[in-house]
Design brief:
single chain; Growth Hormone, Chain: A; 443 residues
Length: 443
Amino acid sequence: MIGFLKIQHKPPVPAEQAESVFAKYKWLSLVGVFVGYAAFYIVRNNFTLSTPELQNQLHLTKGEVGMLSSCLLISYGLGKGFMSALADKANPKRFMVTGLVICALLNIGLAFFGVNVWATAFILILLGLFQGMGVGPAFITLSTWFKKKDRGFITSIWNCSHNVGGGLVSPLAGFMLGAVGTGNWRFAYYVFPAIIAIIVAFVIWFLIKGRPEEEGLQPLEETKEEQGDVDYKDLSSWQILTKYVFTNPGAWLVSFMDTFVYMIRFGILTWLPIFLIQAKGFTHGQMMVAFTFFEWAAIPSTLLAGIISDKLFKSHRMPPAIIALVIIVFCIIGYWTSTSVVAVTVFAALAGCLVYIPQFLDSVQTMEVVPPFAVGSTVGLRGFMSYVLGSTCGTSLLGVAVDHWGWNAGLVMLLIAVVLCTICAVLLHMFTLKKERAAKQAA
């Protein structure tokens, strides 16, 4: 671990100030990881939005577009796995800021050097690797500053950050296209979002804090209980992975569930611009509206899912996820088969509204199936599988299937993914119930 990124320890905060400082730092950190993670999406989803222009300029097939998208997503899965494991041993603030700045610089490189398919693929691979520095610090912050009983709602607030960031890409790019002209689309899609990301990196440097013990504060009482007598400071990243993640069935279940969620999500999101323009006859403007609705429609549903899982289902995360997955089946069919602009846009918005519910609840569940010091590593395993396997099936495999058998082949693939995701959610719910019973018997 580079010295700059290592865990930093500050002098203890005086006892009389500890409570107020703890409250202040946790809310500042929540704002920081929210804004910071949204910025990561601004310099990642911009590539997806640019694919129609890129396809035209570089004369790409759908398979090549899928290949480029997979380069970004697979490398992100690898980066998410490796970087999140490192994040367990790093200072969250420094880790996230460093990753965001590097991603911004790579976007600028994409604008100037992405002049052919191979150069573009190389930059996207690097971009995906460093995008992996965003999620680990966020989960570490949420799991160490907020109690389990509040974590569903708090995480739902943070989870909306990627919808905000992903949804902002379209209006930001549209604004800049209007200012500089379509001939300068690379500046609008790549350089302008990079400038915004660098500004955000500067801001979150002053917002995000380290773990409570890094800031001279006592950790949460339940954090102490979950860690038990384990002195995680003496554990290497590999030891955490092998002893507390790879041998934990819950860690594998959240990972497989996320894999199928990502197949659904990216099967829709990655192909939405090209599908709507080529298969549904949307104009470029209508496509950008549908793209924005797909991202932003998830915000109210995610917040509601967090509250429901905390209060109505008593911190059980999977029942609302299962309900959402059942409804998604009908939304995907409607999105794929409808012919009117309004109907397709509505079904796309509903699919976006619902697909992020199981993804979000699975992420909350991740923090509750392993000890706090292994959260980053578990997020890494989940991210590796969801992006390397799930996103590949939703991008490259779906693209190849559409090239050979038409768009209906994509519909079949997405419906299969929903069924498999639902099975994983049911098994994960059974696992958590068993874990709760064992804890009660031990008590």
